[in-house]
Design brief:
The chain is an all-alpha fold. Helix content is 87%, strand content 0%. It contains three helices and no strands.
């Protein structure tokens, strides 16, 4: 089947993208770059979990990806509010 040939390449591409995002997270010149790198890192982790879930045919990975998506969104909104206002809660 074609998925057995393609999925390892896709997983490798997402892992490489995660390494690039991790590099930007560590070396980012500004705080905004680091927040964006963290956002990219969680999106790539989410995509990698979905690819692993497809490869292993296990629904647990999809549920974990959903949790990462929710927490990542909340974290990105909190970081954006902190950068804009200086505090998260009014």
């Amino acid at each position: 089947m074609i998925t057995t040939l393609v999925l390892p390449w896709v997983a490798g591409a997402f892992a490489l993208a995660m390494l690039f995002a991790l590099y930007r997270l560590v070396r980012g010149p500004a705080l905004v770059d680091r927040v964006l790198a963290l956002d990219t890192l969680y999106v790539n982790a989410l995509a990698l979990l979905i690819v692993v879930g497809i490869a292993l045919d296990d629904a647990v990975y999809f549920e974990a990806a959903l949790l990462i998506a929710v927490f990542g969104f909340v974290g990105t909104v909190a970081a954006a509010r902190y950068l804009k206002r200086g505090s998260i809660v009014e």
